[in-house]
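Per your request, structure below.
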C-alpha cells in the first residue's frame, strides 16, 4: 500500500514539473505534537504473577508527562492541478519525557519501587498530495495524504529500589539497581491531515493543520500553524 501511494505521488509530480515549475511555494510551521503516551495511573491486587523467583501480589503504576513536545516543520510544494499540489516536508520534535513509577508487592518478599524515565525525539521526511477546496475567495479547506519516513530516538533509564527485611519483617537495608539504554527506530508509513488555509496578502497564505502519521509503535499527531510564500 505504501509503495502504491509513493509511486502515484511521484508520477504525478514528474508529469507536472514542466508545466508548473514557476508556481512553486515554500513555507514553515510550528506547533504541538503528541505521540499518544499513556498517562494516568492503574493498580491491581490479589495477583499471582511470576517475576523471576518471586510472585507479584499487587502493584501501583502511575505515569506523568514532564513536557509536551513541540515540532517545527519546513516544506516546499509544487501545484500539479488547479487545487492539488505535491508537497515535500521535513519536521523535527523536541525531546518529550514521560516518567513511570511502579510499586510492587511480592509474596514472602519485600516490596520494591521502580522509577523509569522515557525520552522520545522524532524527526521525519514526508511526501504527499495536498488538496484545497475553496470555501470563499480567501479561505480554503485542506486535505493531505501521503507517506512519511520517521526516525525515533528513544532513551530509557530506570532506578529500581527494594527493601531488605530480616526474619521479623523489620527493614535492615535496601537494594538499588540502575539500568539505561538508547535506541533509534526508523519507519515508513502513511500520513493524513486536515486543515484550513487563508490568504493573507498576494503570494502569502496562512494555514492551520492537524496531521497524523504512523510510527513503528503507535502514531504521532501534530497540530500547528504555518505560513507559505508562493513564487
Amino acid at each position: 500500500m505504501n509503495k502504491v501511494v509513493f509511486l502515484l505521488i511521484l508520477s504525478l509530480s514528474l508529469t507536472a514539473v514542466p508545466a508548473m515549475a514557476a508556481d512553486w511555494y515554500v513555507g514553515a510551521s510550528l506547533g504541538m505534537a503528541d505521540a499518544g503516551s499513556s498517562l494516568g495511573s492503574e493498580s491491581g491486587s490479589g495477583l499471582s504473577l511470576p517475576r523471576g523467583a518471586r510472585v507479584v501480589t499487587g502493584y501501583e503504576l502511575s505515569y506523568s508527562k514532564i513536557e509536551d513536545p513541540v515540532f517545527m516543520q519546513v516544506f516546499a510544494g509544487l501545484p500539479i492541478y488547479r487545487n492539488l499540489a505535491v508537497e515535500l516536508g521535513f519536521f523535527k520534535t523536541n525531546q518529550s519525557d514521560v516518567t513511570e513509577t511502579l510499586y510492587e508487592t511480592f509474596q514472602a518478599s519485600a516490596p520494591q519501587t521502580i522509577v523509569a524515565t522515557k525520552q522520545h525525539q522524532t524527526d521525519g521526511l514526508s511526501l504527499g498530495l495536498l488538496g484545497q477546496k475553496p470555501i470563499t475567495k480567501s479561505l480554503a479547506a485542506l486535505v493531505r495524504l501521503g507517506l512519511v519516513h520517521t526516525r525515533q530516538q528513544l532513551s530509557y533509564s530506570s532506578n529500581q529500589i527494594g527493601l531488605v527485611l530480616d526474619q521479623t519483617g523489620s527493614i535492615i537495608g535496601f537494594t538499588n539497581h540502575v539500568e539505561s539504554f538508547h535506541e533509534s527506530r526508523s519507519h515508513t508509513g502513511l500520513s493524513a491531515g486536515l486543515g484550513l488555509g487563508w490568504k493573507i496578502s498576494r503570494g502569502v497564505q496562512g494555514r492551520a493543520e492537524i496531521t497524523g502519521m504512523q510510527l513503528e509503535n503507535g502514531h504521532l499527531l501534530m497540530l500547528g500553524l504555518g505560513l507559505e510564500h508562493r513564487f
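The chain is about 10% helix and 75% strand.

Regards,
D.
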